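Homework help board

Subject: predicted structure for assignment chain

Our instructor gave us this sequence and asked us to write out the predicted structure in token form, then describe one feature. I got the tokens but I'm not sure how to describe them. Can anyone check?
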Amino acid sequence: MARRRKLEAPSAEDMNRLEQEFRSETPMRNAMAPIAQVAADAAMQSPVVTTEAREQMAKDTADAEVLRDALGKGLVMAEVPLDQIDLDDMIRDRVTLDRSELEELKVSIQANGLRLPVELYVLKAAEGGVKYGVVSGYRRIMAIKTLKEETGEVGFSTVKALIKPIETIPDAFVAMVEENEIRSQLSHFERGRIAVISTQNGAFASVEEAVAKLFSSASKAKRSKVRSFAQVFEELGDMLKYAESLTEKQGLRLAAGLRMGGVQELREALATQAAIDAAGEWLAVLPVLEAFEEGPKDNSRGGRPRAASNSERTGAHFELTRAGKSISVHHAEDKRGHLVRFEGGPVDRMFMEEVLAGLQRLLKD
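My token output:
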């Protein structure tokens, strides 16, 4: 039988010796969990950040978010070189550029700089360094471009611009029309023209859709007028030399005549006339319109027949000036006599009373 060994408790000296041996064999840092050790090492290597520094970093982060948001909305102004802008990417809604207004704009920009930035959009297929198309500010860009050509100054090589987030061509047309409607109202003919051209360029499926999208905020009556002038542009745009001078009433009469089947007659009237101004052009189409407006005669009802309307008129035209404003005077003649028509801003009831009074004095003499 084995002899039992008697166990004895270690003394204090033995315990101290064992603890010293353990510490010498096992480093204290290994007593921490691995992830805790990594965090501790990173904290030892990171610089101490003060409260003020933390506040500044938070502010910088917030400012960066605001800037990204503003850039995305097209609210940040940039200096864009003129040679990066395609002025012909999109057909403009303005038919003509007024030379006198362009000269005034050049003088203003040369003296005071460009006060209002233009609006551009990023082209989907940029070529040859050209990156942007024009939403609004076409005249301002043309003025700066002309100044650069005339003066050679480096300052006229760029233009202040907002880059708008426009994704599609229809959106670009809508933005252009809205901008010009707000800043300088388009004429009736220009509205109809841009509706037709944007449709022809494939931006919209039909003129009806173009009018609805381009003038979505307009009243139903206004959109109806735009459609009428769009028809005038479609049928007679290549024949009318002074379409910009058409009044609302004249344009609507032309559209009505077209709807009544007068396309060929109106085109022939415009082709054979040699008008030198808007008044002469209107006199050329007026007989055709009056004939269609009168309609075919119905003599089956009996009674006294209506006198035939004689619309064969030839006339002269000249311009007068009153208080710095132009007055157009038109003379026409038919078998029933002579007609004189006055048109222009100063022509009102008081003006006509003065004309009639002068005519009375002339006839008494």
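Reply (TA_rk): Your tokens look well-formed. For the description, you could write something like this. The radius of gyration is 40 Å. That's the kind of observation they're looking for.
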